[in-house]
Amino acid sequence: KSANPQWREQFDFHYFSDRKDILDIEVWRKDNKKHEELLGTCHVDITALPTKQTNCLELPLEKHPGSLLMLIAVAPCTGVSISDLCVCPLGDPNERQQISQRYCIKNSFRDIKDIGFLQVKVLKAVDLMAADFSGKSDPFCVLELGNDMLQTHTVYKNLNPEWNKVFTFPIKDIHDVLEVTVFDEDGDKPPDFLGKVAIPLLSV
């Protein structure tokens, strides 16, 4: 019930130079669980923003009244990576030893915010649900930890896809839950849900 809402939410998006450079933002209103209405959209060209500083932007909503006030910072991405299985980070014994020393008990209070990181190897899926009329699916896998999100490539026309990717996340809260969701790519339409698993970090 507000025309001037304040959210004060922070989100981290991993921006890679080989991806599209536009941040798309939509504002919606909800009357109830069934009715939603689009109040406007705006777009931010990431490449045009100065790096290593916080940019205060007032963005008018396209074709609708109102504007959004946002703080956007483009900074080097630390601790997050996507790689193939054959060039897996932490594969080098010397690197593993350095990591062990970095997170040993005697160094616990050197950097309180540096809790650690999580490395996830997404190998394959088996016997997925067929989402297409052809009896196949176009599956891809999305990994979410806190407000960090990374995803695999899509394997087309396959119910037993192999991704063989390695994902590395910095851990910000040891009580976070890793959520792994499989979707079916459906062209310009929203992807279809094929399944999900949730893994609390404390169970690893």
Automatic annotation (TrEMBL):
Membrane topology according to the record: Multi-pass membrane protein
Domain named C2: residues: 1-59, 93-204
GO MF annotation, one: calcium ion binding
InterPro entries from the UniProt entry: C2_dom, C2_domain_sf
Gene3D superfamilies in UniProt: C2 domain
Pfam family, one: C2
Keyword Nucleus appears in the UniProt entry: no
GO terms (BP aspect): regulation of neurotransmitter secretion
Alphabetic keyword roster: Calcium, Membrane, Metal-binding, Repeat, Transmembrane, Transmembrane helix
Compartmental location: Membrane
Top-level taxon of the source organism: Eukaryota
One Gene Ontology cellular component: synaptic vesicle membrane
UniProt similarity note: Belongs to the MCTP family.
Record protein name field: MCTP2 protein
Taxonomic source organism: Pomatorhinus ruficollis (streak-breasted scimitar babbler)
Source taxonomy: Eukaryota, Metazoa, Chordata, Craniata, Vertebrata
Gene from which this protein is expressed: Mctp2
